[in-house]
Amino acid sequence: xxxxxxxxxxxxxxxxxxxxxxxxxxxxxxxxxxxxxxxxxxxxxxxxxxxxxxxxxxxxxxxxxxxxxxxxxxxxxxxxxxxxxxxxxxxxxxxxxxxxxxxxxxxxxxxxxxxxxxxxxxxxxxxxxxxxxxxxxxxxxxxxxxxxxxxxxxxxxxxxxxxxxxxxxxxxxxxxxxxxxxxxxxxxxxxxxxxxxxxxxxxxxxxxxxxxxxxxxxxxxxxxxxxxxxxxxxxxxxxxxxxxxxxxxxxxxxxxxxxxxxxxxxxxxxxxxxxxxx
Length: 278
What we know:
Mean pLDDT: 89
Order of helices and strands: EEEHEHHHEEHHHHHHH
Helix content: 55-70%
Strand content: 5-15%
Largest sheet: 3 strands, antiparallel
Strand order of the largest sheet: 1-2-3
Number of strands: 6
Structural class: mainly alpha
Shape: elongated
């Protein structure tokens, strides 16, 4: 059995896709998957599915959705009912999805991302880069890209996208610390275009260009960011970004005896300075 939420929603059993196709049933499965191992209350399902206008039959309809999911799983398991009961459980006030041994991309992403960020914070960018690349490989598109989201799923999906962004920025930072400037630049060209107000990735882009010997382009990125911030928010770049600009301006050469590689303060994986348009 395997479960995927980092991209399209997918549930498979013995190689058979048992993902429901009805939108509301997909929401029910997705909400349980994002809370795997925890009870999701009936009221949470009702809020997610019908917002402020639930029908009188809401709880009965929810029970029907759960029954349909159980039938899909049971059919794929060839009616091994004890197994099914251990996967989708009824609990007081709600339901629980349990996937203790099944490959689950969200769990795998979280494990590798956490280990990679710890390695980076402990001064091991090589291991950090390897682990973070593995973590990011589980993403096959935006989280739950094919599932409609309501008031409960919506914030959870945005939280997942924020975790993806943090892992990606950490992986880029690891590449910078290892001198893989061209790899970092390739990602940052796209990221800064997509997120014109995100100061952290612009700071990374400036450093990557400067350390790759492209000093004037690095300064150009600063001025582009400053214009975006002033036009949209009326703000100057953060102190960290301005500090990076000053170091670039004061460097006679972008490849001075290796010292330029380490002008920034030790980078904290969860640090996001300034506005972000994630």
